[in-house]
Design brief:
By secondary structure, the protein is an alpha+beta fold. Helices cover 18% and strands 51% of the residues. The protein has three helices and 17 strands. Strands 10, 11, 12, 13, 14, 15, 16 and 17 form an eight-stranded antiparallel β-sheet that branches. It is globular.
């Protein structure tokens, strides 16, 4: 009887695994890359009118509705200040955010998508027309719009022309190890093979701490940082690659 009971129990375990296996596997992440497609509406924005940034996120052709973070980072050509706005899911895999820009000119926007262990980012130039330019375009005078497009595509890069995007953890706690991630892009492509280091300090402190970063994926560098006390910290990301030497400062809050 004991042997019979053991055999029945084993058969039940095998049957349960066979029945639940496929459905459990279906719930697991496929490991395939996450794709993102960006669009802007209207295609020719006008100053003072709402602009809708949109990105459709898919994996193996299926919509991704559980992205951990989607945002749009935009700035005017030649300016250091960047604005970042969060996006919301509005339909199958489509995330959008609205922004009104009051000043005409040439601009850039990055979409940032973090989903299922992947991070996608891509920079797109766009032009915001003045109201008078829009009126001329409506009247059939469209040559000015083409000129703006050329100006946007001819961005003048400062220093190395590398774009830095720091991704600190959602919560930073003093005296606890934290993984700091930075994505580096150049010419809209991930910058691989660089030597990256984090330098961090608080206020006017003379003592600065350093942490080396290693490249985990193309253009994605990670390092372990430990902040000694709560407060506002400056994190400077240093990059070296061949003759290229660049850095950028970020501010993070430690609890």
């Amino acid at each position: 009887m004991k042997r019979f009971f053991t055999l029945c129990l084993s058969a039940l375990v095998i049957l349960t695994a066979a029945c639940s296996g496929p459905s459990d596997q279906a719930l697991e992440a496929s490991g395939a890359p996450v794709d993102a497609t960006f669009s802007i509406e209207p295609a020719e924005p006008v100053a003072g009118q709402p602009i809708t940034f949109s990105v459709k996120v898919t994996q193996e052709g299926k919509p991704v509705d559980d992205a951990r973070e989607v945002s749009f980072e935009w700035w005017k050509d030649g300016q250091e200040k960047h604005e970042t706005i969060p996006a919301k899911l509005v339909s199958d895999g489509v995330y959008t955010a609205q922004q009104t820009i009051s000043e005409p000119g040439s601009y850039f926007v990055y979409y940032h998508v973090t989903a299922r262990d992947f991070h996608n980012m891509q920079k797109t130039p766009f032009t915001v027309k003045g109201a008078a330019d829009a009126d001329h375009a409506d009247a059939g005078h469209t040559s000015g719009g083409h000129e703006h497009g050329k100006a946007a595509s001819g961005e003048a890069h400062a220093a190395s022309g590398v774009d830095f995007h720091l991704m600190p953890p959602d919560e930073l706690k003093a005296q606890s190890a934290a993984v700091m991630v930075v994505h580096l892009m150049k010419d809209n492509q991930p910058l691989s093979g660089g030597t990256v280091k984090f330098e961090f300090w608080t206020g006017d402190a003379a003592k600065h701490s350093f942490a080396d970063a290693s490249e985990k994926n193309a253009g994605q560098y990670e390092g372990n940082l430990s902040f000694p006390a709560p407060g506002e910290y400056t994190v400077k990301v240093h990059l070296e690659k061949g003759d290229m030497h660049d850095h950028k400062d970020f501010t993070v809050t430690v609890q």
